[in-house]
Design goal:
Elements (H helix, E strand, L loop, with lengths): L28 H23 L9 H5 L13 E4 L3 E4 L2 E2 H7 L11 H10 L5 H13 L5 H9 L6 H12 L4 H7 L7 H28 L13 H11 L3 H13 L8 H11 L4 H12 L7 H15 L7 H13 L17 H13 L4 H20 L10 H10 L8 H22 L12 H6 L6
Antiparallel strand pairs: 1-2, 2-3
Helix pairs in contact: 4-19, 6-7, 7-9, 7-13, 8-9, 9-10, 9-19, 10-11, 11-16, 11-19, 12-13, 12-19, 13-19, 14-18, 15-17, 16-18
Length: 462
């Protein structure tokens, strides 16, 4: 495997459903995980023995009517969201990940392979370990014929996220967990089977995603998988952007920063919840993707892009001063509309995922068009929102920037953007699912109440 290739020429052919014959030595990731798990299981047992009866959080009536916002009720080891610092992947901020995680030689962004190793083990991998993981994923990167046929049978007007969810369900025939569970697999091996499914699903989901894209937008003219490329460059190439090294690097950044965001967001929590029933990773991930498809979750970047295009038109396509843009934003708020891409349920500062995309744009893109508008909005919108009292957090989030980057490089099909988000989110939710089974976490079953019970309750905890 030549790991120094970052882009490939564009070619067209029909992918076959045959298994690849690429030989790849095991990456060593499972062996490292096997060594770590007993230590972490013992650590959790010790924590529960010492702190098991301590109160972490008191729940208010408002919180249970408000989407359980802010309730501390889950354990997710892979990432933690801080209101001031943003997301930390196994303790590392996004800038720290960009600095410390290995990169494909000659590129500037960390790879999903490196991040996945970090999420699973809590350790920064070596370049060799990352290259071996790429090779292992590439050896698993093929679709059964029936999955290709299912995807190809979808009408082109079927939403890409519906196609993604259905295709993952079709792939469930390959589940190692389901097969071994039916054979009476011991509980101690649940994590092992979940790991195998996670590795296979991640290795295949970008194939599914690329096939959906080429079917809908390029008349089913598919671009073959290239075993000489890393994960992100392969995805970019199969979409049709082979030969563009910058776009491949954008894919690395995009897939890393969208991968994980604690366990309470809809896609992560759904995957965890369904998995707690011992539904295999294919069933669990498909359910998580159905949550990601919602307008309040993964579709947000589409709404931002639509807003930007509409705003550009309202401004007559010409440059305006910051004062003029601020006045227009005030008029938008006064009309009852919102400015999407600003504010976050947890964060109280600029989302680091926005900042790293902004840095990418400053480095690679000319300050013009939608990119210029996005950066100018950053200069005026927070002050407008603060003075209007419209947001506890007036700062931009990840969705405020991602769309305009994709448009710049020619990926303009907005309905597809959430599929890319889903490919990225597989890294986080599936690594968490492995740890759910390693810890032996039980079926999740919180207690629900009725309004009548709340009205008549006499035993409030003060």
């Amino acid at each position: 495997l030549r790991m120094f290739s970052t882009v490939a020429p564009r070619t067209s052919s029909r992918l076959t459903g045959q298994a690849r014959t690429i030989s790849a030595r095991p990456s060593g990731l499972k062996e490292r995980l096997r060594a770590i798990i007993p230590e972490k299981v013992a650590e959790v047992k010790a924590v529960r023995a010492e702190h098991g009866n301590k109160v972490i959080h008191k729940v208010t009536v408002d919180q249970i009517y408000a989407g359980m916002r802010g309730i501390k009720g889950l354990v997710t080891e892979t990432s933690l969201l801080d209101a001031e610092e943003g997301i930390r992947f196994r303790g590392l901020t996004i800038p720290e990940c960009q600095e410390k995680l290995p990169k494909v030689p000659g590129t500037s962004e960390p790879t999903p392979e490196a991040l996945f190793w970090l999420l699973l083990t809590g350790e920064i991998p070596t370049l060799q370990q990352v290259q071996d993981l790429t090779a292992e994923w590439n050896s698993r990167a093929f679709l059964p014929k029936h999955v290709e046929q299912v995807i190809d049978s979808f009408p082109t007007h079927m939403h890409p996220m519906s196609q993604l969810s259905a295709a993952v369900l079709a792939l469930q025939t390959e589940s190692v967990f389901a097969s071994r569970y039916a054979e009476g697999m011991p509980k101690a091996e649940y994590w092992d089977a979940t790991y195998e499914d996670a590795m296979n699903l991640i290795a295949k989901v970008h194939l599914i995603a690329a096939r959906i894209y080429r079917n809908i937008y390029h008349k089913g003219e598919h671009i073959p998988f290239n075993p000489e490329l890393d994960y992100s460059a392969n995805y970019a190439n199969m979409l049709g952007f082979g030969g563009n090294a910058e776009f491949a690097d954008l894919m690395r950044l995009y897939l890393v920063i969208h991968s994980d965001h604690e366990g309470g967001n809809v896609s992560a929590h759904t995957t965890h919840l369904v998995g707690s029933a011992l539904s295999d990773p294919y069933l669990s991930f498909s359910a998580g993707m159905n949550g990601l498809a919602g307008p309040l979750h993964g579709l947000a970047n589409q709404e931002v892009l639509k807003f930007l295009k509409d705003l550009q038109q309202e401004l007559g396509g010409k440059d305006v001063t910051n004062d003029e843009l601020a006045e227009h934003c005030r008029q938008i708020l006064a009309s009852g509309r919102v400015i999407p891409g600003y504010g976050h349920a947890v964060l109280r500062k600029t989302d680091p995922r926005y900042e790293c995309q902004r840095e990418f744009a400053v480095k690679h893109l000319p300050r013009e068009g939608l990119v210029k508008l996005v950066h100018q909005l950053y200069e005026v919108v927070p002050d407008v929102l603060l003075k209007a009292g419209k947001a506890k957090n007036p700062w931009p989030n990840v969705d405020a920037h991602s769309g305009c980057l994709l448009v710049h490089y020619g990926l303009t099909e907005e309905n597809y953007y959430t599929v890319m988000f889903g490919v990225s989110r597989a890294l986080g939710v599936l690594s968490s699912l492995v740890w759910d089974r390693a810890f032996g976490l039980p079926l999740e079953r919180p207690k629900s109440l009725t309004t009548e019970w709340i009205k008549n309750n006499k035993n409030w905890l003060e």
